[in-house]
TrEMBL record:
Catalytic activity: L-aspartate + ATP = 4-phospho-L-aspartate + ADP
InterPro entries xref list: AceGlu_kinase-like_sf, ACT-like_dom_sf, ACT_Aspartokinase, ACT_dom, Asp/Glu/Uridylate_kinase, Asp_kin_monofn, Asp_kinase, Aspartate_kinase_CS
Domain ACT positions: 264-342, 344-406
Pfam families found in the cross-reference section: AA_kinase, ACT, ACT_9
Organism of origin: Candidatus Scalindua rubra
Binding site for substrate: 47, 74
GO biological process per UniProt: homoserine biosynthetic process; lysine biosynthetic process via diaminopimelate; threonine biosynthetic process
Name of protein: Aspartokinase
Class of this enzyme: transferase
UniProtKB keywords: Amino-acid biosynthesis, ATP-binding, Kinase, Lysine biosynthesis, Nucleotide-binding, Transferase
Matches recorded under CDD domains: AAK_AK-DapG-like, ACT_AK-LysC-DapG-like_2, ACT_AKii-LysC-BS-like_1
Length: 406
């Protein structure tokens, strides 16, 4: 018997009629004889509204209490979804994460799933019920409610699909698949029929919010096929799956921008062994994630070290680098939070050359200055000025002719 996980994002359960059409999709699968688990997000802008409310009451809310609050959005959706299914005459039961044993670590607002005990889900499925689970949440070992980071309902769905060995995890959203770039920014972006785990992993980590990064990590590890599709039509969407040889022919499969990083430069670092180790050890001790790093050797035995961190971590990163500066006797710290990172991704990069050149030329033609560059086997990223991000994304999208057929 087939097992299918269906995840509905915020817009797909935003109001009564959408909730009912989502319920019908679950019922269709159920009546065809498959087992179905529905994972729901909070309705519409609910999570944003709850966050706004929290910050109105307290400008520095405790992350434990934030998780208590934010998890309620998904709880509400799950109960309403079960009621919608009942109203159409079918059996369903809703659960919050804690009730279906989704155990996480204790990093509130960005917890990671460590274990799931699916006994309760399996029991309800065996009673022929549609099981509805509130996404985005779990519980830590001390019985505190946790959330999985923004967009985390995808991860709940894929983790359940992995555990239950589901045949597919359908992610229903407000676009009809994964595009070569965010269609809200690049009007000419084109839908991909298939994309590999590695490509979407890079795209999602570099800013394409269409699927949660952790969800793809789970999917890749446990080989769960994901179909990203629209909740407004019956089109097939985009299949995220293992790499197949024909994918090698697609040199660049997508492009994306993120504005969630800031840049810090430590000027005048004495150019001797151990300095970089000292800087990045201290940042790591503060749990600050560093992304790109460059070092310029300047004259008189002094170097400049530039790196990027998440904007949310900037205040702590600046305090830490000020302290390091004094210890290593560097000269000055300069920060810039008006940057964007533009990335192009494709597994064909492993076997094709000239990709970086093409990207740099496209940016140069638009008079866009490149501040930092980093590459991986299947990705090239450039840091540019924030207000040029959208123009840069469109330019690169055209340069690689991503609007053309696969
Ligand atoms: P949901 O609430 O259903 O989880 P999200 O807002 O998290 O939906 O994700 C869907 C959005 O992701 C789309 O509306 C789209 O603007 C954005 N997006 C970003 N990059 C891409 C891409 N490459 N392909 C498709 N959508 C993308
Ligand atoms: N409701 C949460 C959010 O808005 C989780 C999700 O939708 O996946 O981020
Ligand atoms: Mg999402």
């Amino acid at each position: 018997m087939k097992i299918i996980v269906q995840k509905f994002g915020g817009t797909s359960v935003a109001d009564v009629s959408r909730m009912k059409s989502a319920a019908k999709r679950a019922i269709d699968v159920h009546t065809s004889g498959s087992k179905v688990i529905v994972v729901v997000s909070a309705r519409g802008r609910m999570t944003d509204e709850l966050l706004e409310l929290a910050y109105e009451i307290n400008d520095n809310p405790s992350t434990r209490e934030l998780d208590m609050l934010l998890s309620t959005g998904e709880q509400m959706s799950s109960a309403l979804m079960a009621m919608a299914i009942h109203s159409l005459g079918y059996p369903a039961v809703s659960f919050v994460g804690r009730q279906v044993g989704i155990t996480t670590d204790s990093f509130h607002t960005k917890a990671r799933i460590v274990d799931i005990n699916a006994d309760r889900i399996i029991e309800e499925l065996s009673k022929n019920k549609i099981v509805v689970v509130a996404g985005y949440q779990g519980v830590d070992k001390n019985d505190n409610i946790t959330t999985l980071g923004r967009g985390g309902s995808d991860t709940s769905a894929v983790a359940l699909a992995a555990l239950l060995k589901a045949d597919i995890c359908d992610i229903y959203t407000d676009v009809d698949g994964i595009y070569t770039a965010d269609p809200r920014i690049v009007p000419k972006a084109r839908k991909r029929n298939k994309i590999s785990y590695d490509e979407i992993l890079e795209l999602a980590s570099m800013g394409a919010q269409v699927v949660h990064v952790r969800a793809v990590e789970f999917a890749k590890k446990y080989n769960v096929p994901i179909q990203v599709r629209s909740s407004f039509n019956n089109d097939k969407g985009t299949l995220i799956c293992k790499e197949v040889s024909e994918m090698e022919n697609i040199v660049v499969s997508g492009a994306t921008i993120t504005k969630n990083e800031a840049k810090i430069t430590i000027i005048g670092v004495p150019d001797k062994p151990g300095q970089a180790a000292k800087i990045f050890q201290e940042l790591a001790k503060e749990n600050i994630n560093v992304d790109m790093i460059i070092q310029n050797i300047s004259a008189h035995g002094l170097a400049d070290v530039t790196f990027t961190v998440l904007k949310d971590d900037l205040p702590l990163a600046l305090d830490t680098t000020e302290r390091i500066k004094r210890e290593i006797k560097a000269k000055e710290i300069v920060a810039d939070d008006k940057i964007a990172k533009l990335s192009v991704v494709g597994i064909g990069m492993r076997t094709h050359c000239g990709i970086a050149e093409k990207m740099f030329c496209a940016l140069s033609d638009e008079k866009i200055n490149i501040q930092m560059i980093s590459t991986s086997e299947i990705k090239i990223s450039c840091v540019i000025e924030e207000n040029q991000a959208e123009k840069a994304l469109n330019a690169v999208h055209s340069a690689f002719e991503l609007n053309k057929e696969e």
